[in-house]
Design a protein that fits this description.
heterodimer, A: 439 residues, mainly alpha, globular, B: 168 residues
């Protein structure tokens, strides 16, 4: 059978089963089994399936994934975001649109503590969204700030998707994480500027707080206490990684213990919360690792049938040189982002895109950041956007799915702008790692 | 029918409890890594080998034993933009058809898993148990549970496809 036909069969089957609603993990795994059976026979073929599982889930770096997931879920329930919100509320009261800008600010701080986008989205959705709507904020500004702010979680270090990216491309995890700092802060700044400008020009979108709601100086300063713990966690986790003192796994374990302490101090460490955090950590970890393992078997089929090279060949034929290829790759990522979530996209596309990007002479760290920003846009784009889904769950009555779709548009455009800026000025990503990491 | 429903609920309960108990392995993993950090930075003792060999086997066990629970709680991602528009009965039929890949995947995993667990190291090395046992034993148990949960789902889909209603 020709390579083209085999590739068509492989991906045709994948698309059909995905469209029929079979979970990605079983689509990938099952197709890999069928192909390996016919290409190599049951003895060797099933050996590959089995050892993909062992190989992908053992190792030093991968342990960081469940630990970071645990940390994110624990912090989500620890009450950190609520306290930060009170602090922000007391300090920014006079500003128009303050609550929406503050929401982005807190999401940025949360992003520096956790590596998933759900923690900030869910907590801010519960804490700040009702409070903004109650004070007469425009619902598009309110929803957009929460949904878009939450996506920063996977760009600003620590970031679990970047960790998985590093594992599958061989790029340095330290460089990737540090490289995400400036783009993440830039994005956060752009969100804040956008909200501030709109609320300044159209004051009815984000009204000031009424005078009796404003805090006095004593209240302001006492609220600063709630910033101490988050700051400590950020310094511990990020500091230890960027100084090269601890590995990501060790930093994750420190963060996990920090998050437990955080919950304990806020008196949120109930048995109920503890159990729930454990259960949810297991569910997400299993979801991710089963996909990783199944995709590893699928990747073997990719390689032995020559499908990977076939795809590379097609990509290389695209017009407009290497930048044309890069743009096409990102369009594919954006398209996939509408249907799949970040774990699936990483596992399906990286085996093809990674080598292509490298052979075109692009920097893998730089591409990693572009990749994650594309994934952030995927979180916000319909029909399947994770953050849209979260907003639907937490939004009060009267907010339609159409409202949510419309509210994220300006923020998605700002993410697109950031993508362009990073493509024009690669130093936005590459400068900081080269200054901090000396190895 | 009532007996069948009872049986399916028992399978659900097994998956759920195995999963819930497994979920606490995460605390063990945090503990082992933190222990290693403390040993290294406070007591200056390199226990890295211990860390890797213990945690490296805990994680596969964690992931595999949690498989059935993940299926039960529908935590696996899928593309449902078309799927969710179909009526219940059609969805049941589609699930029956697509489950073939699920079963093939499980059987391939189980085939090897059973094969390797037969070749366990001799019992003399049981104490202290080599940590590789964790994986070798977790695999057949975890995949069998997953297969069982998958069969339960298959049965439910079959009932939906035949009667057009969900089993109570």
């Amino acid at each position: 059978m020709s390579v083209g036909l085999l590739t068509g069969l492989l991906f045709g089957a994948l698309l059909v089963f995905l469209a029929l609603g079979l979970p990605l993990v079983f689509s990938l795994g099952g197709i890999a089994v069928v192909f390996l059976f016919f290409l190599m026979g049951p003895q060797k073929g099933f050996f590959i399936i089995y050892y993909s599982f062992l190989g992908e889930s053992s190792g030093f770096l991968v342990i960081a994934i469940p630990l970071f997931i645990f940390m994110a879920y624990m912090l989500e329930r620890s009450g950190v975001a609520e306290n930060l919100y009170v602090m922000m509320h007391r300090w920014l009261g006079r500003l128009r649109g303050a609550l929406a800008m503050g929401t982005v600010l807190i999401s940025t701080m949360m992003a520096a503590m956790v590596g998933l986008s759900s923690a900030a989205t869910v907590t801010m959705g519960v804490v700040s969204l009702p409070s903004m709507l109650k004070r007469g904020y425009n619902k598009h500004i309110a929803i957009g700030s929460v949904a878009a702010g939450g996506t920063l979680g996977i760009l600003i270090p620590p970031s679990v998707p970047l960790l998985v990216y590093a594992m599958h491309t061989g790029a340095s995890i330290g460089k990737l994480w540090i490289g995400g700092i400036i783009p993440g802060l830039l994005l956060s700044l752009l969100f804040i500027i956008y909200i501030g400008t709109r609320c300044h020009l159209q004051p009815h979108l984000g009204p000031q707080l009424t005078p009796d709601e404003r805090a006095n100086w004593r209240e302001k300063f006492s609220s600063l206490r709630s910033g101490i713990l988050p700051l400590l966690i950020i310094i511990l986790v990020l500091g230890s990684i960027s100084m090269g003192v601890a590995t990501p796994t060790e930093a994750a374990s420190i963060g996990a213990v920090g998050s437990i302490l955080c919950a304990a101090i806020h008196r949120r460490l109930t048995w109920q919360n503890f159990k729930e955090v454990n259960y949810r950590t297991l569910r997400l970890s299993c979801m991710i690792f089963w996909i990783i393992a199944a995709a590893a078997s699928f990747r073997v089929v990719y390689t032995i049938t020559g499908a990977a090279e076939f795809f590379e060949g097609i990509l290389m034929m695209m017009p407009f040189g290497r930048w044309g290829v890069l743009i096409i790759i990102q369009l594919i990522l954006l398209f996939l982002g509408c249907f799949l979530d970040v774990w699936g996209i990483i596992m399906i596309t990286l085996p093809v895109f990674g080598p292509v990007i490298e052979s075109l002479g692009f920097n893998l760290v730089w591409f990693g950041i572009l990749f994650v920003i594309n994934m952030e846009m995927g979180y916000l784009t319909p029909p399947v956007g994770l953050n849209i889904f979260y907003m639907k769950v937490v939004a009060p009555e009267g907010v339609t799915i159409g409202d949510i779709y419309r509210s994220v548009v300006p923020f998605v455009l700002l993410q697109g702008l950031t993508l362009v800026l990073i493509m024009i000025f690669p130093q936005l990503v590459l400068w900081l790692p080269s200054r901090i990491l000396k190895f | 029918m009532r007996k069948l429903s009872f049986l399916l609920h028992i399978i659900d309960a097994i998956s759920e409890w195995v999963g819930k108990i497994t979920s606490f392995i995460i605390i063990l993993m945090i503990g082992v890594v933190i222990w290693n950090v403390v040993m290294r930075y406070v007591f200056n003792s390199a226990a890295l080998w211990q860390h890797i060999s213990v945690c490296g086997k805990l994680l596969p066990a964690y992931v595999i034993l949690g498989g059935a629970y993940t299926l039960l709680t529908r935590a696996h991602i899928n593309v449902d933009i078309f799927y969710r528009r179909f009526p219940l009965r059609i969805r049941g039929i589609i699930d029956l058809v697509t489950s073939i890949l699920f079963f093939l995947f499980c059987i391939a995993l189980l085939w090897r898993a059973v094969g390797s667990s037969v070749n366990l190291p001799p019992w003399r090395t049981l104490f202290p148990p080599p940590s590789s046992w964790l994986f070798i034993l977790a695999m057949p148990i975890g995949v069998s549970l997953l297969l069982l949960q998958g069969l339960a789902k298959f049965t439910r889909d079959l009932i939906i496809a035949i009667t057009g209603k969900e089993l109570a």
